[in-house]
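Continuing from the previous page of notes. For each protein in this section, the sequence appears first, followed by its structure tokens. Read the first protein now.
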Amino acid sequence: FHSALRVLLTDFVITIDKSIEEGDWISAVCTLRATAKQSGTPIEITGSVMIRISDGKLMEAYNHWDFLGMFAQLGYLPTNTFERALGGETII
């Protein structure tokens, strides 16, 4: 997955915008900023992660990132893809 993203993007910076811990779990809302390799366009998407750590080791991780937004910013999707899909239109 990381290798596939490196083909599309460069200059990755991930910031943790908000986080909360409970027991051995941590949850965070993050922002990924990068540059599109093909066009040099800045890309910014948000995501969230939930991670369980035990004995200093990552035991479980659940990730959610706005890849639809990323592909739209890269120019790989038709205009207004999200809005069109919400309207029930099939995107070809």
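Done with the first. The second protein uses the same format. Note its length before scrolling.
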Amino acid sequence: MKKTHNLEVSCGNCKTPVVLYEKAGKGNLIKMQLLRIIESEVNLEKHKGHLICPNCNTVLAKRGTYNNNRAYWTVRGRINTRRL
């Protein structure tokens, strides 16, 4: 089992916190699997499109799939992460 840690993912444009994510392994945040998102400012169950900042409407991540699970593929340079 890989070690996990929590990340606060925020908008790179306006710095608004958007998602609390459980990251596994080391390295940059490339994708966020829906199963590992702990908390979100956006209702992801009702929201079927890309992940957008609720404050400034910047597209932060594109919706897709990974291993047959819903995931959000981050747009490079549009998010900030902070380890908690």
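What the second structure shows: The chain is about 0% helix and 50% strand. The longest strand covers residues 4-11. We return to this in next week's lecture.
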